[in-house]
Amino acid sequence: MSQERRKRKAQREQQPKSSRLRKLLVAVLIVAAFAAAYYLGHKRAHRYDVFAQCLAAKQVKMYGAYWCSHCAEQKEMFGTSFGNVPYIECGIRGQRGETQQCKDAGVTRFPTWKFPDGDVQERVFPLQELSEKTGCALP
User: Fold this and answer.
1) How far is residue 77's CA from residue 131's CA, in Å, rounded to a whole number?
2) Rounded to an integer, what distance in angstroms lies between the CA atom of residue 69 and that of residue 73?
């Protein structure tokens, strides 16, 4: 075999090794990026748990509907901590009607916040303002 042929053969044999190494490195970097995003997102997601639990302890309630974009905006502010907020779903799946519970409570707009002192607010409530009104500390 000529010198030239040996060089080409050696180059072909080395290419897959460097290609595999490159692919492995890219895969490791992708996994690391997802792990970092999950860790940071997970840590932040529970940021308002204590705040939301305080709202529950003070009997503050939010009435909303699954189809309401403003309700979705309010829920988003809490992240996964919204699961700790006392929330009453007023929407009936498959229709635009309201549940009897919400009709009885006099809820006509969403989101509606009801406070133990009788105050009713029909709007998206900034968390800082909700904190000031209820005395529940934000993290």
Assistant:
1) 13
2) 6
